[in-house]
């Protein structure tokens, strides 16, 4: 029976490169260059805008009122809460709202977000969720992975509030709900359908790793 773990197993090397990326390790050690983190934060603001569009697409792709409500709630959470929180967090790192509003979009950001949207447009609601899963679930996995490492430095780590966000109970409750949603829909699917979904998941995971690399390189 297919499950979210089956997707990870399908692209285990890519998944580990994403979860254990050098950006993630430097962040966990507290040694990540401030300018790299700022670059990531700025691009993540643009990512969230596209992420809200993906949830808007999820509303359209939904088949019943429960799915519509769930997708709408996710979209509203980003548009009405998360974006404002992100702007405030960026301000703490010396990034103004004006700067965020005038940012060029990095190639890695374009590649990842447009891939997510394209996967959802060409496929169904499950295809879209699978494309979103490395972000929706992966951040929680990698934050917990950081905490388990012997090199993890919590004391005086300038990025501790970021780690706390993704190890917190609220994020993990949402993460587990997403895993359960995916598992319910993967149960009993045929091998051909799983193969297609696994390819989407693998590509999205690779693009997530590229997003970290973009942060390290401070590239556009």
UniProtKB/TrEMBL annotation:
A biological process from GO: thiamine diphosphate biosynthetic process
One term under GO cellular component: cytosol
Entry keyword annotation includes Metal-binding: no
Domain of life the protein comes from: Bacteria
Segment forming the signal sequence: none
SUPFAM superfamilies per UniProt: Heme oxygenase-like (SSF48613)
Family: Belongs to the TenA family.
Name the record gives this protein: Aminopyrimidine aminohydrolase
Species, as recorded: Snodgrassella alvi
Lineage summary: Bacteria, Pseudomonadati, Pseudomonadota, Betaproteobacteria, Neisseriales
């Amino acid at each position: 029976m297919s499950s979210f773990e089956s997707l990870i197993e399908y692209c285990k090397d890519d998944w580990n490169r994403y979860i254990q990326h050098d950006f993630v390790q430097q962040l966990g050690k507290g040694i990540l260059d401030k300018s790299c983190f700022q670059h990531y934060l700025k691009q993540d603001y643009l990512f969230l805008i596209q992420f809200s569009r993906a949830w808007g697409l999820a509303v359209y792709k939904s088949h019943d009122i429960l799915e519509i409500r769930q997708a709408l709630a996710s979209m509203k959470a980003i548009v009405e809460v998360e974006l404002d929180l992100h702007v405030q967090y960026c301000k703490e790192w010396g990034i103004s709202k004006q700067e965020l509003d005038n940012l060029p979009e990095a190639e890695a950001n374009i590649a990842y977000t447009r891939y997510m949207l394209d996967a959802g447009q060409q496929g169904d609601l499950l295809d879209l969720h699978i494309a979103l899963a490395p972000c929706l679930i992966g951040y929680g996995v990698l934050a917990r992975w950081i905490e388990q490492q012997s090199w993890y430095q919590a004391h005086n780590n300038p990025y501790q509030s970021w780690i706390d966000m993704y190890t917190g109970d609220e994020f993990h409750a949402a993460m587990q709900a997403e895993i359960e949603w995916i598992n319910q829909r993967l149960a009993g699917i045929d091998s051909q359908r799983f193969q297609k979904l696994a390819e989407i998941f693998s590509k999205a995971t690779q693009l997530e790793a590229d997003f970290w690399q973009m942060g390290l390189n401070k590239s556009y």
